[in-house]
Amino acid sequence: HIGGSKSDLDIGGVDLAVIKTSDRKRMPFIPGSSLKGKLRTMLARAGGYMVVDDDSDLIKSIFGYGADGNKEDEEDKDRLPTRLIVRDAMLDEQSFHANFDREDLDTRYTMVKWENTINRKTGTAEHPRQIERVPAGAQFSFEMIYNVFEDGQEKAHMDAIKEAMNMLQDDYLGGHGTRGYGQIAFQEVAFHRRTKANYEQGQAAQLDTTYTLIT
After folding, report:
1. Distance (Å, rounded) from C-alpha 18 to C-alpha 136?
2. What is the mean pLDDT of residues 101-124?
3. CA 77 remoteness from chain centre
4. What pTM was estimated for this model as a whole?
5. What is the dihedral of CA 66, 174, 180, 96, to 10 degrees?
6. Cβ contacts of residue 215 below 8 Å, gap of 6+?
7. Dihedral sign of CA atoms 152, 153, 154, 159 in order
8. How far apart are alpha carbons 67 and 52 in whole angstroms?
9. Per-residue pLDDT tens digits for 20-29
10. Local structure of residue 22 (DSSP, 8 states)
Protein backbone atom coordinates (compact mmCIF):
# COMPACT_ATOMS: atom_id res chain seq x y z
CA HIS A 1 0.00 0.00 0.00
CA ILE A 2 1.52 3.24 -1.21
CA GLY A 3 -1.06 5.89 -0.54
CA GLY A 4 -2.59 8.13 -3.16
CA SER A 5 -4.27 11.50 -2.85
CA LYS A 6 -7.84 12.04 -1.74
CA SER A 7 -8.80 12.35 -5.40
CA ASP A 8 -7.83 8.68 -5.81
CA LEU A 9 -10.74 7.54 -3.65
CA ASP A 10 -12.54 6.02 -6.60
CA ILE A 11 -13.96 3.04 -4.69
CA GLY A 12 -17.06 3.61 -2.61
CA GLY A 13 -16.25 3.60 1.08
CA VAL A 14 -12.47 3.06 0.82
CA ASP A 15 -10.66 5.12 3.43
CA LEU A 16 -7.10 4.73 2.15
CA ALA A 17 -6.54 4.25 -1.58
CA VAL A 18 -3.28 3.35 -3.33
CA ILE A 19 -1.60 5.69 -5.77
CA LYS A 20 -2.53 5.05 -9.41
CA THR A 21 -1.60 6.26 -12.87
CA SER A 22 -3.53 9.21 -14.21
CA ASP A 23 -4.56 7.50 -17.46
CA ARG A 24 -7.79 5.62 -18.01
CA LYS A 25 -6.33 2.32 -16.84
CA ARG A 26 -5.76 3.70 -13.34
CA MET A 27 -3.09 1.10 -12.58
CA PRO A 28 -1.23 1.12 -9.26
CA PHE A 29 2.46 1.89 -9.50
CA ILE A 30 5.45 2.35 -7.21
CA PRO A 31 6.71 5.95 -7.26
CA GLY A 32 10.45 6.23 -7.74
CA SER A 33 10.54 8.58 -4.77
CA SER A 34 9.10 5.89 -2.50
CA LEU A 35 11.64 3.27 -3.57
CA LYS A 36 14.57 5.68 -3.49
CA GLY A 37 13.61 7.03 -0.08
CA LYS A 38 13.30 3.55 1.38
CA LEU A 39 16.69 2.48 0.00
CA ARG A 40 18.28 5.52 1.62
CA THR A 41 16.47 4.76 4.86
CA MET A 42 17.85 1.21 4.86
CA LEU A 43 21.43 2.46 4.65
CA ALA A 44 20.81 5.16 7.22
CA ARG A 45 19.28 2.65 9.63
CA ALA A 46 22.23 0.29 9.22
CA GLY A 47 24.59 3.16 9.98
CA GLY A 48 22.56 4.44 12.92
CA TYR A 49 21.76 7.81 11.36
CA MET A 50 18.48 9.20 12.69
CA VAL A 51 18.14 12.39 10.62
CA VAL A 52 19.17 13.28 7.06
CA ASP A 53 21.67 15.89 8.22
CA ASP A 54 23.62 13.17 10.02
CA ASP A 55 23.81 10.73 7.10
CA SER A 56 27.27 9.49 6.22
CA ASP A 57 29.22 11.09 3.38
CA LEU A 58 28.75 7.84 1.43
CA ILE A 59 24.95 8.05 1.66
CA LYS A 60 24.94 11.75 0.81
CA SER A 61 27.19 11.19 -2.20
CA ILE A 62 24.82 8.53 -3.58
CA PHE A 63 21.42 10.04 -2.85
CA GLY A 64 22.31 13.70 -2.79
CA TYR A 65 22.26 16.33 -0.10
CA GLY A 66 20.91 19.83 -0.50
CA ALA A 67 17.48 21.38 -0.42
CA ASP A 68 16.02 18.62 1.71
CA GLY A 69 18.99 18.36 4.03
CA ASN A 70 20.99 21.56 4.36
CA LYS A 71 19.75 24.68 6.07
CA GLU A 72 19.03 27.52 3.69
CA ASP A 73 21.91 29.65 4.95
CA GLU A 74 24.57 27.01 4.37
CA GLU A 75 26.92 27.45 1.43
CA ASP A 76 26.40 25.76 -1.92
CA LYS A 77 29.72 23.93 -1.52
CA ASP A 78 28.02 21.66 1.02
CA ARG A 79 25.42 20.50 -1.48
CA LEU A 80 25.84 17.24 -3.34
CA PRO A 81 23.94 16.15 -6.49
CA THR A 82 22.28 12.76 -6.48
CA ARG A 83 24.08 9.97 -8.31
CA LEU A 84 21.07 7.65 -8.31
CA ILE A 85 17.98 8.10 -10.47
CA VAL A 86 15.06 5.83 -9.57
CA ARG A 87 12.24 5.58 -12.12
CA ASP A 88 8.61 4.92 -11.27
CA ALA A 89 8.04 1.15 -11.24
CA MET A 90 5.09 0.29 -13.47
CA LEU A 91 2.83 -2.71 -13.04
CA ASP A 92 3.47 -5.63 -15.41
CA GLU A 93 -0.06 -5.70 -16.74
CA GLN A 94 0.31 -8.87 -18.81
CA SER A 95 1.71 -10.85 -15.89
CA PHE A 96 -0.95 -9.45 -13.58
CA HIS A 97 -3.89 -10.55 -15.68
CA ALA A 98 -2.27 -13.95 -16.25
CA ASN A 99 -1.94 -14.58 -12.50
CA PHE A 100 -5.04 -12.99 -10.97
CA ASP A 101 -8.69 -13.76 -11.57
CA ARG A 102 -10.86 -10.67 -11.80
CA GLU A 103 -13.52 -12.13 -9.52
CA ASP A 104 -11.00 -12.50 -6.68
CA LEU A 105 -10.23 -8.77 -6.65
CA ASP A 106 -12.29 -5.83 -5.48
CA THR A 107 -11.21 -3.64 -8.41
CA ARG A 108 -9.43 -4.44 -11.64
CA TYR A 109 -6.01 -4.29 -9.95
CA THR A 110 -6.48 -4.17 -6.19
CA MET A 111 -7.98 -5.71 -3.08
CA VAL A 112 -9.73 -3.92 -0.24
CA LYS A 113 -8.93 -5.06 3.28
CA TRP A 114 -10.92 -4.22 6.40
CA GLU A 115 -8.93 -3.19 9.46
CA ASN A 116 -9.95 -1.99 12.90
CA THR A 117 -8.67 -1.37 16.40
CA ILE A 118 -9.47 -3.54 19.40
CA ASN A 119 -10.74 -2.05 22.65
CA ARG A 120 -8.60 -3.81 25.25
CA LYS A 121 -11.17 -3.44 28.02
CA THR A 122 -14.13 -4.82 26.12
CA GLY A 123 -12.37 -6.90 23.47
CA THR A 124 -14.58 -5.40 20.77
CA ALA A 125 -13.54 -4.03 17.39
CA GLU A 126 -13.74 -0.29 16.87
CA HIS A 127 -13.09 2.27 14.14
CA PRO A 128 -13.31 -0.06 11.11
CA ARG A 129 -11.67 1.21 7.95
CA GLN A 130 -11.03 -0.04 4.45
CA ILE A 131 -7.50 -0.04 3.04
CA GLU A 132 -6.79 -0.67 -0.62
CA ARG A 133 -3.70 -2.71 -1.49
CA VAL A 134 -2.04 -4.39 -4.44
CA PRO A 135 -2.38 -8.19 -4.14
CA ALA A 136 0.67 -10.22 -3.15
CA GLY A 137 2.53 -11.54 -6.17
CA ALA A 138 2.00 -8.53 -8.44
CA GLN A 139 5.10 -7.72 -10.49
CA PHE A 140 6.49 -4.27 -11.28
CA SER A 141 9.22 -3.36 -13.75
CA PHE A 142 11.83 -1.10 -12.16
CA GLU A 143 14.85 0.80 -13.43
CA MET A 144 17.55 2.72 -11.60
CA ILE A 145 20.34 4.73 -13.20
CA TYR A 146 23.64 5.41 -11.44
CA ASN A 147 25.84 8.19 -12.80
CA VAL A 148 29.55 7.35 -12.72
CA PHE A 149 31.89 10.21 -11.83
CA GLU A 150 35.67 10.04 -12.11
CA ASP A 151 36.21 10.03 -8.35
CA GLY A 152 36.83 6.34 -7.67
CA GLN A 153 33.60 5.83 -5.71
CA GLU A 154 31.71 3.59 -8.13
CA LYS A 155 32.38 0.27 -6.38
CA ALA A 156 31.66 1.64 -2.90
CA HIS A 157 28.43 3.17 -4.15
CA MET A 158 27.31 0.05 -5.99
CA ASP A 159 28.06 -2.11 -2.96
CA ALA A 160 25.96 0.23 -0.80
CA ILE A 161 23.05 0.25 -3.25
CA LYS A 162 23.07 -3.56 -3.41
CA GLU A 163 23.22 -3.71 0.39
CA ALA A 164 20.20 -1.42 0.60
CA MET A 165 18.27 -3.56 -1.92
CA ASN A 166 19.03 -6.75 -0.01
CA MET A 167 18.03 -5.18 3.32
CA LEU A 168 14.80 -3.87 1.83
CA GLN A 169 13.76 -7.43 0.96
CA ASP A 170 13.74 -8.16 4.70
CA ASP A 171 11.81 -4.97 5.46
CA TYR A 172 8.82 -3.52 3.61
CA LEU A 173 7.90 -0.90 1.04
CA GLY A 174 4.97 1.45 1.52
CA GLY A 175 2.64 1.79 4.47
CA HIS A 176 1.36 -0.64 7.13
CA GLY A 177 4.39 -2.92 6.73
CA THR A 178 4.32 -4.11 10.33
CA ARG A 179 0.84 -5.49 9.67
CA GLY A 180 1.77 -7.63 6.70
CA TYR A 181 1.93 -5.16 3.81
CA GLY A 182 4.78 -4.36 1.48
CA GLN A 183 7.09 -7.38 1.38
CA ILE A 184 9.00 -7.26 -1.89
CA ALA A 185 11.65 -9.22 -3.77
CA PHE A 186 13.99 -8.01 -6.50
CA GLN A 187 14.07 -10.53 -9.31
CA GLU A 188 15.88 -10.84 -12.65
CA VAL A 189 18.17 -7.93 -11.77
CA ALA A 190 20.63 -7.09 -14.56
CA PHE A 191 23.29 -4.40 -14.65
CA HIS A 192 24.05 -2.49 -17.85
CA ARG A 193 26.67 0.13 -18.61
CA ARG A 194 26.40 2.96 -21.13
CA THR A 195 29.62 4.86 -21.65
CA LYS A 196 30.24 8.31 -23.06
CA ALA A 197 31.34 6.63 -26.30
CA ASN A 198 28.08 4.65 -26.41
CA TYR A 199 26.11 7.90 -26.19
CA GLU A 200 28.22 9.57 -28.86
CA GLN A 201 27.75 6.64 -31.24
CA GLY A 202 24.04 6.17 -30.43
CA GLN A 203 24.61 2.73 -28.93
CA ALA A 204 22.45 1.08 -26.29
CA ALA A 205 23.74 0.14 -22.84
CA GLN A 206 25.70 -3.11 -22.73
CA LEU A 207 25.26 -5.92 -20.21
CA ASP A 208 27.87 -5.61 -17.45
CA THR A 209 28.64 -8.70 -15.37
CA THR A 210 30.84 -6.76 -12.94
CA TYR A 211 27.99 -6.59 -10.48
CA THR A 212 25.31 -9.05 -9.36
CA LEU A 213 22.63 -8.75 -6.72
CA ILE A 214 23.43 -11.36 -4.10
CA THR A 215 20.51 -12.23 -1.85
Report:
1. 14
2. 88
3. 29
4. 0.87
5. -140
6. 166, 169, 185, 186
7. positive
8. 11
9. 999 999 999 9
10. S
